[in-house]
């Protein structure tokens, strides 16, 4: 007596189609991931390059410093001779930060008043810092 067994399995055509779908989906996933990573990386590089360009074009100088002992202020006159506008964010006087928010268009002067009351110093180191990190420092004697 012969037993007839029916074997059921997945045909070769279905197997090949399933393998093709799996390989294509994995390949597409890798492609999408790498494309996203490269776009993110190139965007970050573009921002970094623009930031460095801005730093190179931004130039300013402290032209005068007035020590006003009657008002307890120091007035710092800044001239922007760079190719772009400058945003001054801080004025350090002898290492003490005074936060300011002064916009100076290219080719213009600005007087920045900073409160100060410790007049016993022999000299005053004044450091002006912009939003991009550009800095200019002078030392003034009364």
Supply the helix-strand structural class.
alpha+beta
The overall average pLDDT, rounded, is 89
Return the CATH topology of the largest domain.
Answer: Immunoglobulin-like
In N-to-C order, the SSE pattern is HEEEEEEE
How many structural domains are formed by the residues?
2
Write up what this structure looks like.
With 142 residues, the protein is α+β, with helices and mostly antiparallel strands. The protein folds into two domains: 10-57; 58-140, Sandwich (Immunoglobulin-like), CATH 2.60.40. The protein has one helix at 12-57; strands spanning 60-68, 73-80, 86-93, 96-104, 109-115, 124-130, 135-140. The strands form two sheets. Strands 4-3-6-7 form a four-stranded antiparallel sheet, with no helix packed on it. A three-stranded antiparallel sheet has the order 1-2-5, with no helix packed on it. Strand 3 and strand 4 (96-104) form a beta hairpin. The relative contact order is 0.15.
């Amino acid at each position: 007596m012969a037993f007839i067994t029916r074997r059921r399995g997945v045909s070769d055509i279905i197997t090949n189609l399933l393998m093709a779908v799996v390989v294509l989906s994995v390949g597409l996933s890798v492609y999408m991931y790498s494309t996203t990573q490269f776009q993110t990386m190139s965007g970050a590089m573009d921002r970094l390059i623009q930031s460095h360009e801005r730093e190179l074009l931004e130039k300013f100088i402290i032209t005068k410093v007035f020590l006003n002992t009657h008002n307890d202020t120091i007035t710092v006159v800044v001239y922007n001779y760079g190719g772009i506008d400058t945003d001054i964010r801080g004025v350090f006087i002898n290492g003490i930060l005074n936060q300011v928010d002064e916009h100076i268009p290219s080719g213009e002067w600005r007087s920045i008043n900073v409160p100060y009351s410790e007049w016993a110093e022999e000299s005053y180191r004044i450091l002006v810092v912009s939003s991009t990190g550009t800095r200019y420092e002078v030392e003034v004697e009364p």
